[in-house]
Amino acid sequence: MFPRRIASRIGVGLGAIALASAPLAASAATATHLPAHTPASCSNQGCNGKDPAATGCSTTFQARTIRTAPIMSHGKQVGWVELRWSPFCGNNWARVISTTGPATLAATATRADHAKTSATGKGTALWTPMIFGRDLCVSATGTINGATATTTCG
């Protein structure tokens, strides 16, 4: 019976160690999976005309797509245009994405007062510089190889 008692005590001791360390392991795993928050380098009017990626406005945890519109060519969707918004930065921008591979792209973000920012290029994704849009109506227009779509105002 002596060997059983030792084995039993060892098993209980190992179980206690495992239970005691479980919260530490769980908190360590949680801490390593927290999203990194990149602070933006501008806000409100100070972001107007700047690149949302370079300023950190597109990578803040609050940046999001608020409107989308499919871009169609000859009855087939070739991509979409997005109206993006960063509440932290107070600005909008347009982003166009091609789903058919590299293409000639254009994007424009237009405010209701007709102020706008635009970008053109080749590739599969393109975005405009930001346009101040806090409490203002802004729409996004995207073009892929000549096919165009515009979002509603957001």
UniProtKB/TrEMBL annotation:
**Which domain of life does the protein's organism represent?**
Bacteria
Question: For this UniProt entry, which residues form the secretion signal?
Answer: 1-28
**Keyword field:** Signal
Question: A Pfam family in this protein?
Answer: DUF2690
Query: Which InterPro entries does the UniProt record give?
Result: DUF2690 (IPR021224)
Q: What is this protein called?
A: DUF2690 domain-containing protein
Biological source species: Catenulispora acidiphila (strain DSM 44928 / JCM 14897 / NBRC 102108 / NRRL B-24433 / ID139908)
